[in-house]
């Protein structure tokens, strides 16, 4: 399953539209006023599906993931010099990026690819293509990419 992740250009808070391969909007992400990033994910019917919330009092970027109001885990950036590495404590996934922080590989504990993420260049806003091995993981994969993008914004801004 592939998803196209596009940040909206004109928005007070972080907002994203997520499209499937057919070009249909399958998720909408809206930023919420809070300390740190707080991103709420909505389905095509407008129902809230999940939240990615930044913990502001941490040395390196850390985000808590919520589904249906329940905490399902967290993702945090590790201290590295060249390639960005994130750990996700809820599923045993590991996340490794290239040194430009454009492309990411998410693997499970057995080394199988869960998702690849590629940043599309030459766009006005952040745009990523998510290639997800199992469509049942789509929401979690989207949450991971939202946290990585927000971590990059926090680091650069």
Automatic annotation (TrEMBL):
Signal sequence, renumbered to the chain: none
Gene3D superfamilies given in the database record: LURP1-related
Name of a matching Pfam family: LOR
SUPFAM superfamilies for this protein: Tubby C-terminal domain-like
Family: Belongs to the LOR family.
Name the record gives this protein: Tubby C 2
Gene source species: Ruthenibacterium lactatiformans
